[in-house]
Design brief:
This protein is of the alpha+beta class. The protein is built from two helices and three strands, in the order E-H-E-E-H. The longest helix is centred in the N-terminal third of the chain and has 14 residues.
Amino acid sequence: MTRYVRDYVDIADRTSLDELIARLTELRDALPAEAEAELRIRGDDVFGRRLTVGFLRPLTEEEAACEGRYAGPPELRVAA
């Protein structure tokens, strides 16, 4: 069973339209089909606003190894 984590990419609030389209297209092409990507506007008037793309990605080997150490007793751990 592959475990996925939610990851985010922020895009600054001062970006040209052409640069934004290129960045989003590049990001879309790099994501796996099961990524379930979504675009949100985050922030406020004080700290600024930004576009945030959230998506699912598989755990890296390092993250999986770290998680495996804290998954509970050895007999209950699920093999990756």
